[in-house]
Amino acid sequence: xxxxxxxxxxxAAYGKLTHEVxxxxxxxxxxxxxxxxxxxxGEVRFPWTRP
Length: 51
Prior knowledge:
Elements: H1 2-14, H2 25-33
């Protein structure tokens, strides 16, 4: 979660919107991995890689 929060803060800083960031590591964890799931991870294969 620290890397994701860092990305959020970096993007907010780039857009001069840090005053709008309300997320915390705990709120991200609850939103992404709590019930119900907010996202799922799939598998991506590129044509130039081997299976």
